């Protein structure tokens, strides 16, 4: 791979503004290489840095007597349940990928599950909030069936009940649907895992499936307005709930044995994002050796290895003398386990491919809360004024039976049974609200006379 190729630079510049390029050069004190520019392009995307929403997220209430880990500190928020257990909560949107390929709904469910698992929790319930266009249009109806089928497929095969949700239809979503997913897990307080490197000399371990090379710059794609043509679309990821379940069971065994020092899932931005964010939280530096990462095929280039969003992978921090124990457990579960780098005190991230240095950057310049930009976007009123009318202005209805039939046939009023029956609401036998209609899903906490309402 030519690390200085014009094509590599152009790829990065398609995701960065001129102002951002100027900021990068000013903070670095030099011109970044094309490879380093791609590192910035991934890490400074809306999807990873939240550069347009950080201001509003920071204004939300995040503290309380029952908050164990505040939102934003780790991969998920954590709330007290009792002296032993805590409730772990994560939400994410998965909009652009689904507009391109509705089957990507399964990937979104897997992402939420892994964010719970990386905290040391076990997923116990899921919810979804869906927005689609007019279901009378055939392509919209086909999209709904594909998305719901994909969401249900991952949840059902992973063994986590979908205990609630909401769906609305409006023409404004004809081109780009909205898919918001929520996962809830339960974990032991004394086994919560931080997403941080905290000690010099720790091994960086990649656990799970082999790297696919798919999803490169998926974060940048998900951060830009979706166009009808002329837009570069990353190669689709492939969700694998069976492997995800195996990965979870392996991690629980490692965690119970005290072998995990820190952990983050491989999501948007690939190994780069996970390593940079863990290093920043712990105030450390890292060196990643790309040649040590196991690949599905050998023709994947260095940038694809670094940025690939391969499903069912985790990045772990481990003590040097614990690596062989971790590798033995992973082998028993049939998972790849590789020592791909080490932690140091440099507060820099160095990317190596054999003896070649691909990139060398200060960690803090890449991440949210460090050098990543924060924008306060211009906003304006939509210009729509609600109509005010009196009861006298409303015409008298005609045949009330006909009107009632019309109302109950409207997409936003009609039964959602055809949707929720595609989900296994009784997976794990913990859902207490599956047999009757309720305003919330209720999940039993195993071994305790308590339940979660969500």
What's the gist of this structure?
This protein has 454 residues and is an alpha+beta fold.
Descriptive account of the structure:
The protein has helices at residues 6-13, 18-28, 34-43, 46-49, 54-58, 96-100, 105-117, 138-158, 218-221, 241-256, 270-282, 302-307, 323-332, 363-366, 400-409, 417-420, and strands at residues 67-69, 77-80, 85-93, 122-132, 162-169, 178-188, 203-208, 262-265, 285-289, 313-318, 336-344, 348-353, 356-362, 442-444, 451-453. The mean pLDDT is 89. The longest helix is centred in the first third of the chain and has 21 residues, at 138-158. It is globular, with a radius of gyration of 23 Å. With 454 residues, it is of the alpha+beta class. It has 2 domains: 6-56 and 194-366, PurM-like C-terminal domain (Phosphoribosyl-aminoimidazole Synthetase, Chain A, domain 2, Alpha-Beta Complex), CATH 3.90.650; 63-191 and 424-453, PurM-like, N-terminal domain (60s Ribosomal Protein L30, Chain: A, 2-Layer Sandwich). The strands form 3 sheets. The chain has a 7-stranded mixed beta sheet with strand order 8-10-7-11-9-12-13. Strands 1-2-3-6-4-5 form a 6-stranded mixed beta sheet, with helices on one face. α7 (105-117) runs parallel beside α8. The N and C termini lie far apart (49 Å). Helix content is 32%, strand content 21%. α8 (138-158) links the parallel β4 (122-132) and β5 (162-169).
